[in-house]
Amino acid sequence: MLPPDKLASPLTVLESAGELIADGQLGEAFAVSLGRVFFGFLIGGVIGVLLGLAAGLSRWGETLLDPPVQMLRTLPHLGLIPLFILWFGIGEEPKLALVAAGVAFPLYLNLHAGIRQTDPGLVEAARVLGYSSFERIVHVVLPSAVPQSLVGLRIALGTAWLSLIVGEQINADAGLGFLINNAREFLRTDVVVVGLVVYALLGLTTDALVRLLERRVLRWQAR
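^ ABC transporter permease, sequence as received from the core. Prediction below:
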């Protein structure tokens, strides 16, 4: 129904996927993109968790940290690309920074909210039972924040892949984004679709892994 320069047929897409797998191009691009998401997620995750703990567990931390974080959160993080290029150049650093920025805010918001929504009755019961402040945090507050934090983790992973798609448009010479850009130059819609399908499968896989983790960690919740 559509000309090949607009959208390749499913059969052509499957054939192109087989060719890309056979010659190693898809595997190499997959490994590069996965590495970028991993390191970007690691950086953003550490920042988001540390900020969430500081703001969630301390009134002073919330007063000092939450307003500037909320201000930065309202900025579309993809709009920071020009600034990241000025700061870090056009190498790997802006791509990792973009993924990290997309990851940090969902983790921060959900961890902070999870801590603040802890049932005061549970905290008071732990205090009456003789738990120290540190023990109340470890045994009551943080476990109560786990469900909300896992929601943040799922959102963060989805945002990480979205950020990577955009980040790999920045002077990339490897990765799925480079594969898609190169195919666009030659009107290879079949290869473009292959790259997009791989992105989608990666997103679904990581989300499924978090949901599996959620089922194991939250076995105590009533279903």
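The chain has one domain: 10-218.
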